[in-house]
Structure formats: C-alpha cells, structure tokens
Amino acid sequence: MKAIIPLAGKGTRLRPQTYATPKPLLSVGGRPVMSYILDDLVELGVQEVVFIIGYLGDVIRDYIAREYPDLTAHFVVQEVQDGTAGAVKLAEPYVDEDLLIVFVDTLFDADLSLCRTLPEDWAGVIWAKEVEDYQRFGVIVTGEDGAMNRIVEKPSEPISRLANIGLYYIRDSALLFEGINHALQGSSGPGGEYYLTDAFQYMVDHGAKIRTAPVAGWYDCGKVETLLETNRHLLETTRGGVSPSASLSGSTVHEPVRIEDGVVLENAEVGPNVTLGKGARMVDSKLRDSIVGQEAVLRGVDAHGSLIGDRSRLDDVRGRIHVAHDSVVTREE
C-alpha cells in the first residue's frame, strides 16, 4: 500500500506563521501536525508516500529527509492550484496498487487497520464524522449497508450529517484515476478547482462499493482558533506534562500544559492550554490558550489565544499575539 499526501496549499488562514513554515509543519501538542499522520502510516506498514508539494516545498522535502529517512518519498510539484482532483492526478505515475489519500488539515482518531481487513467486494473506504453543523462540509449520503451513494457539498437541507474528513482508502486505483480524468474533463468549481469527491462519485456510479467508516475524533488544524482547540485536546489526552528539566521559579501552572525540556519560568503564570517549546523562557508573564515555539523569550507579557514562533522576543505586550519565527515585538511608551 502507498499513500498520497497533498501539501501544496499556502495556509493563508494561519499567516503569519505560514509565511516561513508550511501549514503541515506547524506545531500542535509539541509536534508538527503532519508527524502524527506519518507515524500512523508507518505503523500501518506504509513505506512509500507521494507528497504533492508547492508552496515552501523545499521545507517539506528537508523535513521528510531528516525525520523519516526510511520512508520512500516521492515529491511532485503542483504548479497550478486546480483543486484536490488535480493534486491527486499528479501522483498517478507512482501508483500501481491500493492507496491511502490523506489531507493533513486535520488530525483524526481512525482505525486504519480497516484497510487490511476490508472484504474484497468493497472498492474503498471514506472515513466520516457525524457533525451538527453539516452545512459547512461535504456530507456523505449512504445506503442501509453503509455504502456511499453520493457526496453533497454544503447542503442546505439535513440530508446527512456524515462529514467527509479527507481520509480515504482506495483499492481500485485504476477506477479512481479514471474518475479523476472524467472530473478534470468536466466543469470546474469555484476558483477553477476540480474535486476529488467527483471522482469518488464516478466510481460509485460505475458500480464500485465505497464503504463509509466512522472516526472517534476529528480535530481541525486549519486556522488559529481550531489549532488551539486541537492543542488542548492533545494536552488533555496524550501530550500534556512538564519536563523534569524545566525550571519553574515562583511560577504557577494550570493544567493542561506541555512544558518541554529546558523551559525557564520566572514569576510566571502558565495555562491552561499552553504548549511551551524547548528552551522557551517566560519572565513576569502570564499566558493561556497559546502555543509558544522553541527558545522564544517572553518578558512582561500577558497573552491569550496566541501563536508565537521559535526564537521570538516579546517584551511588555498584551492581548492576542500572532508572530512567526524570529519576531521581535516591544511596546513603546
């Protein structure tokens, strides 16, 4: 089994962080978003991944080479942003077997082992999450056997509450690319984009059975507010804690937090829902609902709902602070 991971987006909703860091490599719970997904794929036994890159693609290449050297990685540049169907089409030369397609705007709690046990009469799996605000998503309409009948984008009527989360297993890759070619020959959607979901609809219309499967959790990492919500979930479950090497002098900590190696707190109040990267320092400061990068220094800061990049220097500032790596912010009288 191989995997395709489209990564060409610019992550505009997470600027300024994404001016220098690709959205999949932003940190949540002390790790890049994409690392959680790659670890799941490696555990499943996936050894070969096609990365569809574009914006800051060299940063992605360097990260994969450094952190996943045993992975057979192919990198294909999406020159034209023509949607999810166009992105996956670029991986066709590398696909000769069943595959997983994973979009990394979200984290998920899903049983990927279903790929190994799926009965032979099924052509694939679409993982889905039941939601209340169904109008925001593409939703999957199923039959009594749990098979996909159709996908409807942002329905005005509650025809289904099963939201498409961007995680797919396709056994019949030949029919998938036939469907992608059909979609690309048709009319584009808004912004000139072509949708991968139209290829799935083509597969179903041509007799394929695609099963829907539930996920226990689905956590958005695509904008500041939801990235911080996902950070809280991770701290409350698997990623919280205070490193033994952290120094907490005259400071108060409100769980959940993640305080990494070498962090120094002096007369600080931290949490809840705060991640402090390795070597960060807080002096005479308060911080909640925030993610702070490695070696950042905060003095006289009172902040919440913030994303603060690596090695940033903040002095005497208040409120919500969103700054990229190596920023300097100082309040002047």
Description:
The strands form six sheets. Strands 14, 16, 17, 19, 20, 22, 24, 26 and 27 form a nine-stranded parallel sheet that branches. Strand 4 (about 50-55), helix 2 and strand 5 form a beta-alpha-beta unit. The longest helix is centred in the last third of the chain and has 16 residues, at about 225-240. Helices cover about 20% and strands about 35% of the residues. Helix 5 crosses helix 6 (about 195-205). With about 325 residues, it is α/β, with parallel strands linked by helices.
Distance between the termini: 60 Å
- Average pLDDT: 90
CATH class of the largest domain: Alpha Beta
Overall geometry comes to: elongated
What is the number of beta strands? 28
Instruction: Report the CATH topology name of the largest domain.
Output: Spore Coat Polysaccharide Biosynthesis Protein SpsA, Chain A
The largest sheet, given as strand count, sense and whether it forms a barrel, is: 9 strands, parallel
- As a percent range, the share of helical residues equals 10-25%
- The H-level CATH homologous superfamily of the largest domain, spelled out, is Spore Coat Polysaccharide Biosynthesis Protein SpsA, Chain A
Low-confidence runs (pLDDT<50, min 5 residues)? Answer: none
- Under the CATH scheme, the architecture of the largest domain is Alpha-Beta Complex
| Rg, nearest Å | 22 Å
Keyword list:
alpha/beta; Spore Coat Polysaccharide Biosynthesis Protein SpsA, Chain A; UDP N-Acetylglucosamine Acyltransferase, domain 1; 9-stranded parallel sheet; 7-stranded mixed sheet; 7 helices; 28 strands; 22% helix
